[in-house]
Amino acid sequence: MSNTDFALAVEDLTVSFDGFKAIDALTLYIDKNELRVIIGPNGAGKTTLLDLICGKTKASAGSIKFKNTELTRMAEHKRVRLGIGRKFQTPSIYENLSVFQNLEVSFPAGRSVMGALAFKCTDEVKSRVRTIAEDIHLHDKLDTEAGLLSHGQKQWLEIGMLLMQEPELLMLDEPIAGMSARERELTADLLQRICKGRSVIVIEHDMEFVKRIAHKVTVMHQGKILAEGPMEQVQADPKVIDVYLGH
Ligand code: ADP
Ligand code: MG
């Protein structure tokens, strides 16, 4: 496979914070329709890697290509327009709007204007809201005020708000933190469904959860990749057991 076939190609990526390399010459390829999980000890550079891909942090060296477009020096909002969606650890939903309204306002601006087309677009928005509400297990909560949702439901709503923009790459940083066992199960389902037609990168610590969702696992350590492959292979790797799983 040539590098142009990947949804995301990260090559020799480095970022230094006052001389400390949080990401150190890292190379990573993600396929279309792939759900990749990134694991590794605290401080390994996992969140920083997502920050670099979404444009929140600027790289010191190396390259990030998305659908073969060079992103490395592109502004954050342009990366969003290209199809990159990122969920942060704390949800940013509108607590006093309904679930429906939260999803509706997340429909990309600029697509629903155009005078005569407005009616058609409104229907398009509504139908997208309904489809996504099903995907995120909130179809019977459309009229509920978002502030009244459980912690887990708020996390799903935020994923839904990102899905409204139809991202081709979706990145989630520890999406099940603070969720109940049942919510974790439903989140595993949800992720398996939404990785069809796009690529998804998930950072997670819960190994049972990782086992359920990952197509492939990347283990990071000190800004580098320590191991990569199917879960069973990574779990049996002595290097991985030594720096992460053994603790
Ligand atoms: P992880 O998500 O794997 O726990 P992070 O990506 O948050 O790790 O952090 C990796 C390392 O980079 C840590 O040592 C952290 O302190 C450092 N770091 C992250 N962001 C910054 C920053 N903006 N300035 C300085 N150091 C940072
Ligand atoms: Mg982190």
Describe this entry's structure for a reader.
This protein has 247 residues and is α/β, with parallel strands linked by helices. It has one domain (34-58, 79-245): P-loop containing nucleotide triphosphate hydrolases (Rossmann fold, 3-Layer(aba) Sandwich), CATH 3.40.50.300. The protein is built from 9 helices and 10 strands. The strands form 2 sheets. A 6-stranded mixed sheet has the order 6-7-8-3-9-10, with helices on both faces. A 4-stranded antiparallel sheet has the order 2-1-4-5, covered by helices on one side. A hairpin with a 2-residue loop joins strand 4 and strand 5. Helix 3 packs across helix 4 (118-135). It starts with 7 loop residues before the first strand and ends with a helix. The protein binds adenosine-5'-diphosphate and magnesium ion (MG). The site of adenosine-5'-diphosphate has 10 residues, from helix 1.
Low-confidence stretches: none
CATH homologous superfamily identity: P-loop containing nucleotide triphosphate hydrolases
Broad CATH class: Alpha Beta
Q: What's the shape? A: globular
Q: What features would you highlight for this structure?
A:
6-stranded mixed sheet; binds magnesium ion; 247 residues; globular; Rossmann fold; alpha/beta; 36% helix; binds adenosine-5'-diphosphate; 4-stranded antiparallel sheet
Give a quick rundown of the structure.
The chain has 247 residues and is an alpha/beta fold. The protein has helices spanning 46-54, 76-82, 99-105, 118-135, 151-163, 181-194, 207-213, 231-235, 238-245; strands spanning 8-17, 20-30, 35-39, 61-66, 69-70, 84-87, 169-173, 199-203, 216-221, 224-229. It has one domain: P-loop containing nucleotide triphosphate hydrolases (Rossmann fold, 3-Layer(aba) Sandwich), CATH 3.40.50.
